[in-house]
Write a structure and sequence with these properties.
By secondary structure, the chain is an alpha/beta fold. The protein has two helices and 21 strands. The radius of gyration is 26 Å and the shape is elongated.
């Protein structure tokens, strides 16, 4: 073989095997650098972050930051209870390995940025106890792995997005104490992994969709302090074997109390007060041997609760 050609081929071979290695080595710190830039967009929200989040230390050692050992990327951000104030910067959408995001009990305000929909690995979101406003973004329904979503105690308005029904892994949905209006989407009945559903203290109207009572995994359900109307399904407990809390007080519900309540055999709390229920109190309530709290006042009921003694 011609010596010159041999040298060229040998050089090309070395480039081929070396370049990927260089690329691989360079990729890791650049990715973490991307996370660092994204986090620095939050630095202005408190003096604590301004003094702790500095270039003199690793991002993974910053307060509130957890990095994954496997990917060496930011996997969790917990800035709860730090008196932070400001808006959520769209740059947080660059934390592509983020699994948990907790900004609860701060003074954040404004709308949630659409860029949060880029965080496809998120399993946990808690924005409770802040001052967020605007609509709940439908883009939250684009987070396929989400298991926990708490937006309670904010000032969100508008309706509950139907897109939340896409969160098939969701186990907790807490929208308590906002200013939400409109009807509860029947599509939420698709959330067949849901254990906790809290929508109390809003301005929700209309009937509770019957599909909600078909979520067999539900453990706790609270719709208290809304403007819900209509009656309860006569077979509402047929598919709720694990339900322990059912709170529907302070609404405009009417009709009779379903007689099959005994099928919710694990009920510990049953709150139906301050509605317009009428008729006889079902004797089946006496078969709820796990019941600890029972509220039926301020209705148009008659009869008495007969407790089964075992």
């Amino acid at each position: 073989m011609d010596k010159k050609l041999y040298c060229i081929l040998q050089y090309a071979f070395l480039i081929t095997i070396t370049f990927p290695m260089l690329s691989s080595e360079a990729k890791q710190p650049m990715s973490l650098a991307t996370d660092q830039t994204a986090l620095l967009s939050l630095k202005h929200t408190s003096l604590l972050l301004a003094t702790n989040w500095t270039n003199s230390s690793s991002v993974c050692s910053w307060i509130g930051v957890t990095c994954s050992l496997r990917h060496h990327r930011v996997s969790a951000l917990n800035l709860s209870n730090m008196a932070l104030s400001g808006t959520i910067p769209p740059q947080l959408g660059h934390l592509s390995f983020l699994v948990s995001l907790d900004l609860s009990n701060n003074h954040f305000y404004g709308d949630l940025p659409q860029e949060l929909s880029l965080l496809r690995r998120l399993k946990f979101i808690s924005f409770r106890l802040n001052n967020f406003t605007g609509d709940i973004p439908p883009m939250l329904g684009q987070l396929p792995k989400l298991e926990y979503l708490s937006l309670r105690n904010n000032s969100f308005i508008g309706s509950i997005p139907k897109s939340l029904s896409n969160l098939t892994n969701l186990q907790l949905l807490d929208l308590t104490s906002n200013s939400l209006s409109g009807e509860i989407p029947k599509e939420l009945g698709r959330l067949q992994s849901l254990k906790t559903l809290y929508v109390q203290s809003n301005h929700l109207t209309g009937a509770i969709p019957s599909a909600i009572f078909n979520i067999s995994t539900l453990v706790s359900m609270a719709f208290t302090d809304n403007e819900l109307s209509g009656s309860l399904p006569t077979d509402m407990c047929r598919n709720l074997p694990t339900l322990t809390v059912l709170s529907l007080s302070d609404n405009q519900l009417s009709g009779t109390i379903p007689s099959n309540l005994s099928q919710c055999s694990r009920l510990e709390v049953l709150s139906l007060s301050y509605n317009s229920f009428s008729g006889e109190i079902p004797s089946e309530i006496g078969y709820l041997t796990s019941l600890q709290l029972l509220y039926l006042g301020a209705n148009n009921l008659n009869g008495m609760v007969q407790v089964l003694i075992t």
